[in-house]
Write a structure and sequence with these properties.
The complex is a heterodimer of chains A (188) and B (67). Chain A has 188 residues and is α/β, with parallel strands linked by helices. Chain A has 5 helices and 7 strands, in the order βαβαβαβαβββα. In chain A, α2 links the parallel β2 and β3. In chain A, α1 runs parallel beside α2 and α1 packs across α5. Chain A is globular, with a radius of gyration of 15 Å. In chain B, β1 and β2 form a beta hairpin. The chains are: A alpha/beta (188), B mainly beta (67). The interface between A and B is medium-sized, with 38 and 17 residues.
């Protein structure tokens, strides 16, 4: 049934809590290709939610994620971009993707990616995440859909000094994004 | 006027309103938004000048940090 995933490509914009966990989920189910982009290196505080290991601290996230994906499913083609994504480079990097997963941390980056894709790449599906800090309140997390834009989250829990991004809720949203991607990919 | 706001029907007494007026009427106070009117992205500097009329399809999406 998942044979058709082999011919599909998903772009992951950001390889933090959302991006690393979403990419791993898609790799496990046999996605054909992932295009992953992030400019950051792993620090120890990332390990409370991101799919990396203590011996990977200091490495570029894109390189470590490619390694971790290959240990789970080495049939997945992983194209890495160790770069800060901008309105200028997004259209080139993700031009061959069926779906782009927005997996940034900062709200202004989320806004930039959504506006760029909706304006310049209107044929692409986008799956974004908004609102997942803290803990508990499972049933506040949902997915809303407008045309080819899907957004997962609770739309209000913003990170702060007292409301941290933590593995359970970030992982829920990352896997909701992967699940939404799977639903779209099985349809198109 | 009757419009679609975030996939729901919504009625306002005025026959046309700017995006800024709709944000105020609906109490959307968040600073980071993606706004779409009939598939056109509305930038922040256009909130006052973009007019919404009967039948328009408006999306106001609130983005918060974290991920």
């Amino acid at each position: 049934m998942l044979e058709k995933l082999k011919n599909k490509t998903v772009g992951i914009a950001g390889c933090g809590g959302l991006g690393s966990n979403c990419a791993i989920a898609l790799a496990r189910i046999g996605i054909g290709k992932l295009i992953i982009a992030d400019f950051d290196n792993i620090v120890s505080s990332n390990l409370n939610r991101q799919y990396y290991f203590t011996d990977q601290i200091g490495l570029p996230k894109v390189d470590a994620l490619k390694t971790n994906i290959s240990k789970i499913n080495d049939n997945v083609i992983v194209e890495t971009h160790y770069i800060k994504l901008t309105a200028r480079n997004i259209p080139g990097i993700f031009s061959n993707c069926d779906i782009i997963v927005e997996a940034f941390d900062l709200a202004e980056m989320k806004q930039m990616l959504i506006e760029t894709v909706l304006t310049v790449m209107p044929d692409k599906y986008i799956i974004s995440g908004s609102g997942m800090a803290g803990w508990g309140n499972n049933n506040s997390i949902k997915t809303i859909n407008f045309d080819k834009l899907y957004v997962c989250g609770d739309f209000e829990s913003e990170i702060s000094d007292v409301l941290l991004p933590l593995a359970p809720r970030v992982g829920i949203v990352a896997n909701m994004q992967a699940n939404q991607a799977l639903e779209i990919l099985m349809k198109i | 006027m009757n419009i679609i706001l975030n996939n729901n029907s919504e009625s306002f007494e005025k026959s046309e309103m700017s995006i800024a007026e709709i944000l105020k009427a609906k109490n959307f106070i968040f600073k980071m938004l993606v706004i779409k009117v009939n598939d056109r992205i509305i930038k922040k500097q256009e909130y006052d000048t973009t007019i919404v009329i009967e039948g328009d399809n408006v999306v106001i999406l609130h983005l918060v940090s974290g991920g």
